[in-house]
Every structure is written in C-alpha cells, then in structure tokens.
Specification:
With 218 residues, this protein is α+β, with helices and mostly antiparallel strands. The protein has helices spanning 3-36, 43-46, 56-66; strands spanning 98-104, 108-109, 116-123, 129-132, 138-144, 147-151, 163-166, 172-177, 197-205, 208-209, 213-217. A hairpin with a 2-residue loop joins strand 5 and strand 6 (147-151). The longest helix is centred in the N-terminal third of the chain and has 34 residues, at 3-36. 12% of the residues are buried. Mean pLDDT is 75; it is low at 35-52 and 54-73.
Length: 218
C-alpha cells in the first residue's frame, strides 16, 4: 500500500468513527430532551448571571467517553424519630402503665353486715414507679342511681398523701369496709344510714377508673 493510499485509509476510518460518535450523541440528546419535556426557566437561569448552555453534542460525546453513571441515592427528607428514653426507677407511674380494679366481697349484705371491697393497683410498666394512693388521689365512691351516698374523699383527716412504690407486676392491695352510712363534705357527726337497695361502687384515680361493682343491701 502506498503512503498516499494509507493517509486516505486512516482519514476514512476517522471519518467513520466521528460519524458514529455524532450519531450516538444526537440520539442521546434526543432521548434526554424527549423524556424531560419542555422546561421552564428557573429564577436562577433568568438572572443576568445565568450559566452558559452546554452543547448537547459535546455532552453526548462526554457521556459516551466516560460511560453512563449510576444515579446517586437521594437522601431521605424524613427525619427519624428519636427513641424514647427509658423510665428511671421511682418516677411517677404513667396512667397507661397502671391497672386499677375493685372487687366486692359479696353481692348481697344482709343483717347489718358491712360491705367489704378489695382494691388492687398493678404496675405493668418496665420499671418500678411511684403512685399516690391517698384518699384524695384514690377515691372510692358509692352511689345509688344519681344519689351520691358515700366517698372516701369526704372529711379526710391527717395527711391526704400516701405515695407507694409499685414494682412491676406486684399488686398493691387494700381492703376497705363501708359502715353503711352516708357521708358528706360537711363532716356531720351522726350521718344517716343508707337504706336497703341496690348500690354501685367504683374506685377512681386520676384518669383511671375501675369497672363498676353492683351490690345490694338488705
């Protein structure tokens, strides 16, 4: 092969290579512009300091030379919620960790027998906590219909606060007798006796309330 023929040969090879690169670049540019759709100029682009437009042909050639890059993962905009700090032993008990209940000894009390109730309070939380079980914080109330008959919160004498430590799963228990007499906040000396009939007992402690207990006096 002569030198002149060699130059012609390499010039043809380079022409073919450049043509291939141009075709690939144009196809890449057409695909990218077709998928993104028309774009509105942003405020930054409309300013006087707008950056110069990149030639799509050069961008396509650069992409062909460097290869296709994998898109970097976009960081999530959702902030993770910090974990709640564990309770410290001895903190006041949360209402959601307490189970309050009351059980009557009998359903019917006759012959002057005094009704008896067993009150239980259980801590279901993760650690030991404290609760005030004094007569003002924990009230036992007996009603008959709409009539308020008796309450442990009436005429409280001495300290009205009684803070107890509640271990997890260990019930605090109190036994309570009712003398079958009415009570009132005026602390009368000789309150009248309750009449025979049907009564309802309940214990309350803040937002907690035990199931209603129905019993009868004869």
């Amino acid at each position: 092969m002569r030198d002149g023929d060699g130059d012609v040969y390499w010039r043809r090879r380079m022409s073919v290579l450049v043509a291939v690169l141009v075709v690939v670049a144009v196809v890449a540019w057409a695909c990218s512009s077709g998928s993104s759709g028309p774009q509105r100029p942003s405020s930054a682009q409309s300013s006087t300091s707008a950056s110069p437009t990149v030639d799509p042909l050069l961008a396509g050639l650069r992409t062909l030379a460097m290869g296709t890059a994998s898109p970097s993962p976009t960081p999530s905009s959702t902030k993770s919620t910090p974990a709640a700090k564990p309770k410290r032993p001895g903190d006041p008990c949360a209402d959601g960790d307490l189970v309050l209940s009351m059980q009557g000894k009998q359903d019917v009390y006759s012959g002057g027998a005094q009704p008896n109730f067993l009150i239980t309070l259980v801590n279901t939380g993760p650690v030991m906590c404290t609760a005030d079980v004094g007569p003002r914080s924990m009230e036992v109330r007996i009603t008959s219909g709409e009539d308020r008959i008796w309450s442990t919160a009436d005429c409280v004498s001495g300290s009205a606060t009684e803070v107890k430590q509640l271990q997890r799963g260990v019930p605090w228990v109190r036994s309570l007798d009712w003398d079958r007499r009415r009570s009132s906040d005026d602390c009368r000396r000789n309150p009248p006796a309750a009449l025979p009939g049907t009564y309802v007992a309940v214990v309350r402690m803040g937002k907690l309330k035990s199931p209603l207990g129905v019993f009868h006096l004869r």
